[in-house]
Amino acid sequence: MAELTMADVVAASYELSPDGLQYLPAPTKKNTALLLIDIQGLATPDYLTKKAVAKGLPEDQVTAALADYKKRFNAALDNCAQVLAAARKNGIPPIHVKIETLTGDARDSGLGHKILDWRVVPGSEGAKFLDQCAPKPGEVTMTKTGSGAFSGTGLHQTLSNMGIKVLYVAGFVTDECVETTIRTGLDFGYFTNLIADATTTYYKKNHQHVVDKFAEWGITVTAEQVGQIFESLA
Known about the structure:
Blueprint: H1 6-13, H2 18-21, E1 32-37, H3 45-54, H4 59-65, H5 67-89, E2 94-99, H6 111-116, E3 140-144, H7 155-162, E4 166-172, H8 174-187, E5 191-200, H9 204-216, E6 220-221, H10 223-232
Parallel strand pairs: 1-2, 1-4, 2-3, 4-5, 5-6
Helix pairs in contact: 5-10
């Protein structure tokens, strides 16, 4: 027998449990929502470019350095728009959450954002929802001042009031706000799923690490699969 590796041990210890799977709620049209995280100016390659150039970095080199992220970001954004259209078509409520302070001086930002000097104040370029996935009247929108969508918002109470038990999550960025939201959602008892091709992050390897981890848990889907799921719900 070949010598075991860490991957073998982890695979065995993370094997999906039939006993655990019995607790997963079956998705229905009434108990399912699409959760869209930080699809806003702050996450865009163009925003990063402007910030970097303002710090004195050469624009041509910044553009080159961001080329891979820009390609992945645009592809993920297209898929975010695709699943949002599918949700609207099939009566699945979209919930839009973005980073934005309540105060004009960003004093109410979470500590992590203060450390990063993220001052995403109302009306700023970074705070604006992107046109491709902008909320429509009547859709739930929330602002947050930290990473996870549950922290410092009324999301948990709102989902509970709406009877939501199943979440499909898309947005930015994979290894920060999206991952934090998914883990917290699971802790709160929501069957929370990552739409793996409707998110990305600055470093491709970090994105893939999160996707692979959640795939081991059986909670990753593609944008195409989500569209099919939404179509099938009764």
